[in-house]
Amino acid sequence: MWAHFAHIGHIVRPHSQALFWRSVAVIDELKSKAATARMLGISKESLDRLRKAGRIQAIRIGGRVLFADAEIQAFIQRSLEKRKSAA
Description:
Blueprint: E1 3-5, E2 10-12, H1 17-28, E3 30-32, H2 33-40, H3 44-52, E4 59-61, E5 64-68, H4 69-86
Antiparallel strand pairs: 1-2, 3-5, 4-5
Helix pairs in contact: 2-3
């Protein structure tokens, strides 16, 4: 039996269980635009502006714009470092 992730286009065969679990881990680390905006305490529109300016990276899957937890944390870290250097 094959596991199929239609929303990310991966077909995982039984002999590649390691790939299957890595794919599941990546899916668990992705946040929606709304969830990311809430985490950062900003509007979805502000998050879109940051993304379009290249300040935070996103992944498009289908019509959805998703943000990896690691990228969100890196953005927060960069923002904190920028504030420290400006002070």
